[in-house]
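To: structure desk
From: M.T.
Subject: fold request, one chain
Message: Could you run this one when you get a chance? Sequence is below, nothing fancy, just the single chain.
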Amino acid sequence: MARVALTDKFVLHAKADGSGRADYFDAKTPGLVLRVSEGGKKSWSYFYTSPKDGKRARLTLGTYPARSLASARALALEAKSHVGDNMDPRDVYAAQDASAVTVKTLWDAYLEKHVRPNLRSASFFEHRINKKVVPVIGSIRLADLHPRDINLGPVLN
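Reply: Done. Structure tokens follow.
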């Protein structure tokens, strides 16, 4: 459990120790931890004392390099503010995820409001989208959807 002033360069070259895993606590943002596994996988976590039960808890913030050091620090500070407001960050983020609109919920609403009432070929489109699109990107939140996630060529054929 080393406390280190994390930098982008340090995070890029961080290695696991002989035990197979290393945790590097950030000196700048209390509670933020870079966990490096034996295989070289790096993930961000935030350790805090849960306001619900007073026990130590860990909130996973994402993996490196998908989540940068700056982004991990921002999320850790946000989680710290939730703890300061006497809310467990895990509950806050779970509620946000549960209320988020996904591609599937958007498709279902569009289908009900526009496709079924207006198209004679609604069953064709419904079958096509439910078979080829929903299984692939249906669970992605709209806020997380990127153009790279969508390739309509195979769907239309």
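Reply (cont.): The two ends are 54 Å apart (CA to CA). Let me know if you need anything else for the meeting.
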